[in-house]
Amino acid sequence: MSKTIALLGSLDTKGVEYGFIKKRIQERGHRTLLIDTGVLDEPALLPDIPRESVALAAGGEIADLRTRRDRGEAVAIMGRGAELTLMRLYREGAIDGVIALGGTGGTSVACQAMRSLPVGFPKVMVSTVAGSDVSGYVDGKDIVMIPSIVDIAGINRISRTILARAAGAICGMAEAVIPEAQDHPLIAASMFGNTTRAVEAAKAVLEQADYEVLVFHCTGAGGRTMESLVEAGMIAGVLDITTTEWADELVGGVFSAGAARLEAAARCGVPAIVVPGCLDMVNFWAPDTIPDKFRERLFYRHNPNVTLMRTNIEENRMLGQILAEKLNASQAPVTVLLPLQGISLIGEHGGPFGWPEADRALFDSLREHLRPDIPVVEMECTVNASSFAERCAEELLKNMGLTR
């Protein structure tokens, strides 16, 4: 069955390359929809949706952008316009996939637009920056990033291969048939290596209750993705056992999920349980990447590429307050569970990160700032104890039952 693939990008500077991809897609028997986001010269390829329409969607005028020649402003307006345009096309059922090509500016515009589309919708980005850290462009969405290898500046021996394969990729994604299955309500769970046993045990209880559990690795991107799915209305409950990303956000680690972490369930009225799991650690890469100001702190080498730093008493006080403030906005039932004998595998009392005073500062601060009607369950065990995991699952099931 023929599909419609959106081609999104600057048709003034990348017209030849988009023409090449357009032809490859049409050779597969699919339709194309060209959306122009260029602002300077006239398009080298006739668009189906002109740049004027894209800019107008964001309240801008191409003539103004061309006159001012402010690249930052142009990227912002065209990015927003492309986002609104793609969202409209998706809602109308007019497109089955999207592909884009670009350097830093083109990648920014296209990825902003692609991030507005739901998980599972085919998205391919051929980019000059795809071989580096692209978390700022992808931000937890399932955008397939393909390194362009050479600059996107004409068709040559290298680009011909890369672009042809990219065209094949978006066609294959759009053609793919998703097998039908009996779907169960979804629960989102946060996990780290240091809370794996807890999450796996709680997951088993929830699956026996006919829920499907999606587990997100708390590496920044994982937390952002989890929050975005909650906001999209796909999640029935949140098993937030591992809130470690807030330690990285506060202290400056590499796995921050941003300042909005813990807000989606509270704001959207999704039942949850929250545990300060792994807030005893901040993540850095290899030891030689750790900022000098932390050199005297306590570290644990998780693997050759990841080094953990123990959070101190003052940081834990601040983390307790932050968690409480986020949860105080909750519009659905939420329960806090505290494992008093350790909040991570290595943070168990007597372990490498065992520091009861720091844990106590976290717990006391959380209780002090938490809304009085939010229940707090304290258990004399570690976060990975089976009894704690089972209680987490039971409390979440109870909270979800209260919203039915």
Architecture blueprint of SSEs:
Elements: E1 4-9, H1 15-27, E2 31-36, H2 51-57, H3 62-68, H4 71-91, E3 97-102, H5 104-115, E4 123-127, H6 135-138, E5 144-147, H7 157-175, E6 186-191, H8 196-208, E7 212-217, H9 221-231, E8 237-242, H10 245-251, H11 264-268, E9 272-277, E10 281-284, E11 299-303, E12 306-310, H12 313-327, E13 334-339, H13 356-369, E14 376-379, H14 386-402
Parallel strand pairs: 1-2, 1-3, 3-4, 4-5, 6-7, 6-8, 8-9, 9-13, 13-14
Antiparallel strand pairs: 10-12, 11-12
Helix pairs in contact: 1-7, 2-4, 4-5, 8-14, 10-12, 12-13
The string of secondary-structure elements, in order, is EHEHHHEHEHEHEHEHEHHEEEEHEHEH
- Please bin the fraction of helical residues: 40-55%
> What share of the residues does DSSP label as strand, in percent?
15-25%
Mean pLDDT across all residues, rounded? Answer: 96
Radius of gyration: 24 Å
Q: Which geometry do the CA atoms define? A: elongated
Poorly predicted regions are none
The main sheet comes to: 6 strands, parallel
Class by SSE composition: alpha/beta
Query: Got a strand count?
Result: 14
